[in-house]
Amino acid sequence: MVHRVAVIGAGASGLVATKCCLDEGLEPTCFERSEDLGGLWCFSDKANCRRVSVYRSIISNTSKEMSCFSDFPCPEDFPNFLPHSLLVEYFRMYARHFQLLRYIRFKTTVISVRKRTDFATSGQWEVVTDTEGIQESHVFDAVMVCTGNFQHPQLPLASFPGIETRFKGQYFHSQEYKDADAFRGKRVLVVGTGNTGCDIAVEMSHVAAKVFLSARSSTWVFSRVANHGFPWDMISTTRFNYFLEWLLPSAIMKRIKFGKMNSWFNHKIYGLASAKSSNFHFIINEDLPFRILSGTIVLKSNVKEFTETSAIFEDGTTEENIDVVVFATGYVFSFSFLEESVRNTINNNGALYKCIFPPQLERPTLAFIGLVKLTGSVMVGAEIQARWVTGVFAGVYKLPPTSKMMAEVSKKQLPVKRNQSEKQNLKMNFISYTSEIASCAGVKPSVLRLLLTDPQLALAIFFGPCTSYQYRLMGRGQWSGARAAILTQWQRVLKPLRTRVLEDTASSHSWRWLGLLALPTALVVGVLFSKRLRMGWVPWAGLLE
């Protein structure tokens, strides 16, 4: 029986893992190598090779309602998208509310995690830590690794001939970037069009002489601000939309998505993406299209090589007088503290059962929390993982036999032919993954059952945003405030916007009538739509041509 649990890291995943341990009657000890909680969201203006932290201006890509923990809504006066300071403040509020600080040992680095000699029967681990030069050895019944995706910068300099031997300018990984002040008047090349690369390029473009943004693959851009000004994930991440994605052929759904993004601006004209591209990924950035349109950012192809002062690109073009190169080339995770026999089996999260458990272990007492890339908030994914994992540790839930877990892992692993960057860009569907883990934990809500007992709540769950509160309506860990949190979530979205309220007597009544008409309208549209499809009508033909 598991009692003592080591939690490695006090970021979002570590905090919720510690809290879930307490919920199951376990005894957690959380080890955090820095002096504060919050993980990478805890901003530091000093570049530290041992610790990854965000840059000064960063704002979350997922909204507060879609990111908060399931039994602790964000304050209603918080903005919908949080800067790092407010997100860390939310973490502190969460830690104080659930009295988690007493279980965290700050300035303590985990040196090694090794199986005990009797692991096959006990499942125990020997954990060695270092606290300001003093090493200690501990024995734990289970370990939760909560160090996340962003551990060690990936800097593939060998792929860029000349950068180390000829180039005389400055170059560094985006991990070292904090703000744009030092780059005023410079000619900067940013390599990589992920969220971080585009954010840095946009920010630098306000002060730099010119910013060049090098892209290797197609990149689709969308805004945090969706229809009518609402947060994008509150509109798009719904069970109804997920049902449509499941129902319709993937080619049609791809056309719908690409058409919607091209309705904002034509990605092909901007050189970002083509509907015919096979290798693509999505980023969130409201400012990038305008910065390209204004000429302060110039999009370029992949870098072929560097000379002393210039960059030569694969399309044959050259940009002279480059002062700075920023490599926004992602991160890798190594888990150097794990013993080699365990570490070698975890090359990526595809080698983990449900992206959590190493399936080959004799005892399921090691779990990875937050080591998953989702189309929505990883915080919510980490919480549902931690709830299931601590239930497994407490003996409430049972894992399948090793053979079945290994078979599922092999089935879901990506083909070997995919390159590493393509693997890193792939994300799992937020609703699909969280619902899958919620089913394992017995907390996934039944919309059909609720439709009979609580129609208002059922409609809010199916047609409204898939917020984490839905996983507190039933089962183990049920929260009495979950229903109210779901039915008031839009109030918390609107609250910080009401700093100047304009009188409109008709608006409230209009919204009520729209709510009443939502279900019958959806049903009528669905029937007509299915009939049209059976007749062979494809409304999206030529949309992207």
UniProtKB/TrEMBL annotation:
Cofactor(s) required, per the database record: FAD
Membrane topology qualifier: Single-pass membrane protein
Highest rank taxon of the organism: Eukaryota
Pfam short name (any one): FMO-like
Main location, first listed in the record: endoplasmic reticulum
One annotated GO molecular function: trimethylamine monooxygenase activity
Gene name of this polypeptide: Fmo2
SUPFAM superfamilies noted in UniProt: FAD/NAD(P)-binding domain
Record keywords: Endoplasmic reticulum, FAD, Flavoprotein, Membrane, Monooxygenase, NADP, Oxidoreductase, Transmembrane, Transmembrane helix
Protein name, per record: Flavin-containing monooxygenase 1
Compartment(s) of residence: Endoplasmic reticulum membrane
Family: Belongs to the FMO family.
EC category name: oxidoreductase
InterPro entries: FAD/NAD-bd_sf, Flavin_mOase, Flavin_mOase-like, Flavin_mOase_1, FMO-like
E.C. number(s) listed in UniProt: 1.14.13.148, 1.14.13.8
Record's catalysed reaction(s): trimethylamine + NADPH + O2 = trimethylamine N-oxide + NADP(+) + H2O; N,N-dimethylaniline + NADPH + O2 + H(+) = N,N-dimethylaniline N-oxide + NADP(+) + H2O; hypotaurine + NADPH + O2 + H(+) = taurine + NADP(+) + H2O; hypotaurine + NADH + O2 + H(+) = taurine + NAD(+) + H2O
PANTHER family: DIMETHYLANILINE MONOOXYGENASE
Entry function: Broad spectrum monooxygenase that catalyzes the oxygenation of a wide variety of nitrogen- and sulfur-containing compounds including xenobiotics. Catalyzes the S-oxygenation of hypotaurine to produce taurine, an organic osmolyte involved in cell volume regulation as well as a variety of cytoprotective and developmental processes.
Entry's Gene Ontology cellular component terms: endoplasmic reticulum membrane
